[in-house]
Amino acid sequence: MTRMPCYFHPDQLLFKPAYEWAFGDKMRHSESTKRAESIVRSLKENKDKYELMKPERIQLKAIRDLHNYQLITLYSTAGTLPEGKTVFPSIFPKGSRDYSADPTNIYHAGYYCFDSGTPLNRQVWTAAAWSASNSVEAARRILKGKERVIYSLSRPPGHHASKDKFGGYCYFNNAGLAARVLRPKGRVMIVDIDFHHGNGTQELFYKDDKVFFASIHGDPREYYPFFCGFPSETGAGKGEGYNLNVALSGGTKLKPYRDAIRKHIIPAIHRFDPQFLILSAGFDTYYQDPIGNFDIHTDDFYEIGLEFNKLNLPTIIVQEGGYFTKDLGKNTVSLLSAFV
Ligand code: SP5
Ligand code: ZN
Fold it and tell me: How far does residue 83's CA lie from ligand 2's centre (Å)?
């Protein structure tokens, strides 16, 4: 039996965001290295099923297929910050004026960002580039057809990042980069099961009829990212009908969650008839998660995984959120085990 390839690079751990600003308070940053460490530990405990591998380092060209040059330049500017210095974007220009920003000036970061929870420091570029390398390598490998399912331990996460903006702990859109690799070879379905709406991924493919984005998440009237993720957002132009949002209230348990997947997402997948599936897998739906507000338990992730494994598509599972670090590894392995 071949084991499931799981991509991860140890230099992803060099990035250690110390704190964040949220709802007016300064707090310990949720997106800690403990997250990846917990997952790596669980994968190693199940060596018979999962094979940890290091990716090739992503080329600038592959990033530029999705993100604009200014955003990339900003991260390399962050790479010149002194050790230990953190910059939080805090000025966010809005409206229709023709602003100009300079990505070589770190204090212009707010132009390329939409929240104050996503710090820049000397290590962010290295970690984000390796995080993206995992999903791109997974996509290239899935095209070879040897394995049907590959896992990308992407950390920092990606689904809030768009072409030209970062935020929500996300710098490069790892799932989007994988989709970009697969798209020339066939229709790509992205299903986002993170607690939060994947606003970045939605934006990237909103006008695209070759990449269908579906997300099931906490109702944005109540939860981050607040201003998008509504069912009325169905795509635009050629992409009209190729975007689907399912918003659920806080406290949702497995049964209504799975019913919503079966009622809304699975039929959309069958209609779209994709050649590839990318699962943006966040685990902040876990009942103990400090940020998410659903009532999903460890064994439930296996049940959720089964819904997608049944489709029998070439599948890339890309790590997104999940902040109850003690159980993150076992929750991840619970989901993955539905695919082995
Ligand atoms: C990838 C991902 O899951 N990003 C989530 C970004 C959420 N940002 C808002 C976090 C608000 C933190 N609130 C902490 C409450 C502690 N009780
Ligand atoms: Zn999330």
Answer: 28
- Strands 276-281, 315-319: pairing is parallel
pTM of the model: 0.98
Q: Whose CA is nearest to atom 15 of ligand 1?
A: 291
- C-alpha pair distances (Å), 82 with each of 31, 86, 107, 311: 21, 9, 14, 48
Retrieve residue 320's tokens: 């997104």
Question: What is the three-class DSSP state of 3?
Answer: coil
Q: How far is the CA of 322 from the centre of ligand 2 (A)?
A: 6
Catalytic (active site) residue 297? no
Rounded CA separation 275/136 (Å): 17
Q: Are 214 and 233 in contact (CB under 8 A)?
A: no
Among candidate residues 67, 148, 69, 146, the one with its CA nearest the CA of residue 101 = 69
Residue nearest to atom 1 of ligand 1 (CA): 321
CA geometry: angle at 234 spanning 154 and 250, to 5°? 60
Show the CA angle centred on residue 120, arms to residues 332 and 135, nearest 5°: 35
Instruction: List pLDDT tens digits, range 261-293.
Output: 999 999 999 999 999 999 999 999 999 999 999
Whole-angstrom distance, CA of residue 340 vs CA of residue 332: 13
Q: Ligand 1, atom 17: nearest CA belongs to which residue?
A: 290
Cis status of the peptide bond prior to 225, with omega within 30 of 0: yes
Please name which ligand lies nearest the alpha carbon of 169: 1
